Amino acid sequence: MSLEREKLKEVIKRGNNLFPLSSYIWTKEHYDNQVKLHWHKELEFVRFIKGDFACVENMQEFKITDRAVLLIPGNITHSFFLPKMSEESAVVFNPEILSLNYYDGVEHDVMPGLASGQIALPPPIFPGDPFFEEIDSALDFVVSNASAKNQSMRLRIKARLIEVIALMYEGGYLVSKTKTKSKSFSKKDDRVKELLSIINEHFTETLRVEDVADRLGLSKEYFCRFFKRSFGSSFIDYLIDMRLEKAAEDLVMTDKPVVQVCSSNGYPNIGYFFRSFKKKFGCTPAEYRKKLGKKQ
Questions:
Q1: d(CA 79, CA 53)
Q2: How far is it, in rounded angstroms, from Cα 184 to Cα 172?
Q3: Residues 66 and 119: beta-carbon distance below 8 Å
Q4: Separation of alpha carbons 242 and 207, rounded Å
Q5: Which residue in 59, 88, 103, 256 has the most C-beta neighbors within 10 A?
Q6: In whole angstroms, what is the distance from residue 102 CA to residue 183 CA?
Q7: Which domains does the chain have, with CATH numbers?
Q8: Which residues have CB under 8 Å from 194's CB, separation 6+?
Q9: pTM for the model
Q10: Neighbouring-strand partners of residue 52
């Protein structure tokens, strides 16, 4: 991967330098949430709790209803559709926090593969599968306590994560890849990552389908078909939704005036921004910010 591509993948800082781990909770919101296709070097555990979820992992689509646990190794493209009133949580962390100082053969076999994506993608784990309840309970503990500041809790969180990986290994979920990806699949995966990099870098600008297709060396027609198959929506719909998600994040995380949030996320027309925002989130930008208790 080029240095430019490496720079443009998802680079959200997880936790802090001493404990690079973050948790996310989605619970009974009154609007749908499309977690955009992305990838990162960290491991991610996702707990699906209640609802009908649509998932894409390494360009493969599948559905999940209610309870399940999914492990996403590092450098794997993935996205989720979280319907309104559903419940889901996730923990994302740098696997190096689990490293042992004393050499351990199993750790040597498993952890590098999880971090690099060289472990075969584990299937979702459902109730009734080996160790599901133990794995689900341990991850619930991690998500619930991820923001704790005391060092003893951090040790307990690490212990739970090691326990989860050990249970998955014992249950036969973690298997090294026996075959390399086909050249055609690798090319498609690389093209998706390049496309994500272009969108992430330029989403606030005027992005025409023709320009993006040309940058990828594709015809406009082929690009539209490729995008629809890979992302499940048209390029324009995806771009609009991404701008709204970024604007919602700015409303929560900053004290920028709404007009500035609008313009800095690719919306030159504030009236269109307000209408689009209310259609997606069911409220105005100001109401959204107030509801979440953030700065006005």
A1: 11
A2: 29
A3: no
A4: 13
A5: 88
A6: 38
A7: 3-170 (2.60.120.280), 203-291 (1.10.10.60)
A8: 5, 216
A9: 0.67
A10: 65
SS (H, E, C) the chain: CCHHHHHHCCCCCCCCCCCCEEEEEEECCCCCEEEEEECCCCEEEEEEEECEEEEEECCEEEEEECCEEEEECCCCCEEEEECCCCEEEEEEECHHHHCCCCCCHHHHHHHHHHHHCCECCCCCECCCCCCHHHHHHHHHHHHHHCCCCCHHHHHHHHHHHHHHHHHHHHCCCCCECCCCCCHHHHHHHHHHHHHHHHHHHHCCCCCCHHHHHHHCCCCHHHHHHHHHHHHCCCHHHHHHHHHHHHHHHHHHHCCCCHHHHHHHCCCCCHHHHHHHHHHHHCCCHHHHHHHCCCCC
Residues 176-217: tens digit of each pLDDT: 765 445 555 567 777 888 888 888 888 889 889 999 999 888
Q: What is the pLDDT of residues 116-161, one digit of tens each?
A: 767 778 899 999 998 999 999 999 999 999 988 788 899 999 999 9
* Per-residue model confidence as pLDDT tens digits over 13-61: 445 556 789 999 999 888 888 888 888 889 999 999 999 999 988 878 8
pLDDT digits over 252-282, tens only? Answer: 888 899 999 999 999 988 999 999 999 988 8
- φ/ψ (deg, to 5) at 63: -110, 150
